[in-house]
Amino acid sequence: MKELKPRYDLGGDEFIFVELAQEMSLEANFRGIAITQKLREKNIEGVVDICPSNASYMVRIDPEVIHPHRMIEELKAIDNSIEDLSDIQIESRAVDVPVLFEDPWTHEAVMRFRDRHQDPESTDLEYAARINGYDTKEDFIKAITDSPFIVSMVGFVPGLPFCFQVVPREQQIEVPKYVRPRTFTPERTFGFGGAFSVIYPVQGAGGYQMFGIAPAPVFSQDTRLPDFKESIVFPKQTDLFRYRAITREEYDSIREEVEAGTFQYKTCDISFKADEVIEDPKKFSEMVMRRLYND
Amino acid sequence: MIKVLEPGIETTVQDKGREGYYEIGMPPSGAMDRYSYLAGNLLVGNEENASSLEITYMGPKLQFEEDAVIAITGGEIPPKINDEPVPMWTTLTIKKGDILSFDFVKSGARVYLAIAGGIDVPVLQGSRSTYTLCQIGGFEGRALKAGDELKIGEMQETSVKEGTAIPDEFIPAYKKSHEIRVIIGLCSYRLTEESKQRFLDLEWKVTPEANRVGYRFKGERLNFVEREQPFGAGSNPSNVTDLGYPIGSIQVPDGIEPIALLNDAVTGGGYATIATVISTDLSHMAQIKTNETVKFKAVDLDEALEARKEVRRKLDKIRELTTGQK
Amino acid sequence: MSDKAIISPLPGVFYRKPSPEEGNYVEEGQQVEAGDVIGLVEVMKNFHEIKAQESGTVESFLVENETVIDAGQEVAKLK
Question: Where in the sequence is the domain holding A46, given as residue range(s)?
Fold first, then answer.
């Protein structure tokens, strides 16, 4: 934790931006989670929005109620009160997230925007597998689906989960974004950019590599769906998403459930301490998989 | 009931905005020129958060099917009732059967039509504002179309005398070149010193990509400090590990064309942000048109907070005028 | 008859043709009626038709195809 040197800065007169680290790490993410949790509990008057992200966080305030400099002092005090990773308790849920890899819809989009890609000769999946040192697409899909990802940030558009895989650093997949962003990405595309996988909640522009499509929504206004009764977005920061490769048959049957308003994600509540994950990500991931599928 | 005969180019229902949902990726939406929007509600005696129509570049043609009290504020898109010019920034009455229409835009980019009672659309997460990207809020989650019928709500709290007019000193005037105040910061360390200075020295031209999501500017390429990109950030020098974007923040993807993010913007992403428009000047941003020019002026927090107080003082004065009370 | 102008009510990119593959809406010297479309303006990802406000002969275009124009700018002269 000593290596994290938070940098406090102003985003105009209403936002405080705090960069915990320039590079992505579980340490920085967990620290941001811990600080923003404590901030929420303090219920400080004048705080409008608390927005934790990957390796930084942001607080929106009404500067006439709380002066931005005063807010920064509060945040520094919270930061100082967190001694080390074992202090950080995280209430999370593991989620089974089905994905149809190499589906016809994202494939159509992959082919349509070849001229904006680093490698027009391969598909996004073939390219990403190759530059990450995998011999086959299948091996690469296995690496993505073998270990869960932690939702390290929600944002960009409502409900978009940025997901960071819980594996040792040397196993982490990293891919560049498109050379020029696409003007179209299908709704529910499973994408990858930098060190993050995402599911696009709605159709729109995008720059992440496209590997497949999820049959279940992450954003929905259909309140018949049990997962969307409380909120129009499903993902929460700290969720543990396990992407599971499915067949076209299963895809179609989940789509039917979604259309009928009966689909529900398979989930399992998991409570853990941040240091458990950092010290042995492999062991932690195996525990998550066991809890999600065997309990 | 108000019937939309012609919709204009982008006319949406907006209020103060949807606050408190930034963390799930939901931008606030809401009236872009908050000052004009609030002044409009004061002129018709509405509660502060009653919804109005935000009209961009070209006015709609609306038929009122009941008597109503209205006010039109913002940039200058001259209004007419039954083809007769009527003043802006003034409490007006309109009769059943009357048609409200607009001339071509003279200055600014957006006007607000406030109606006593507000526009009655469903409240979603505390707001009636339209967020077109996700097709939520406002009137069916979209800009108005011909044939739409708008219901008038019940958010009037006091009646204001017809003809009550806001004095000129409270009415902003817009030219074709603009000065917008910013606080430099966020990831501005990514720019070279020379480029940081050039960002402030250049006159930036507003491209046709200028809407409620953001304004994109043309000028010169800005340069980033060379570095080995940190893990997770992505390969372009303008990339950072995905982070939150403040409303009004300015990013420069690939160093090419700066984008100022506004009310309907994405809430985060992987581009270095270099400055943030101060909250009061977001109202001014809303009145800038494509092909006009902007110069960014760096100010400190004290100046930004003073500007905020000044806007509040103006709105308090307008309230005294419309309610006749101190 | 005095000179008349066709004005764009919107700022944006001015196009003289409906799509890149098609010909111009009107040529210089051509007769137009009030309401005839003479060009498009693209702004905020919308296309808006620019129509002649009155009838006459298009004497000349005052802006090139695909240039960015101001709101209220004259795009063509009529006589």
Answer: 7-84
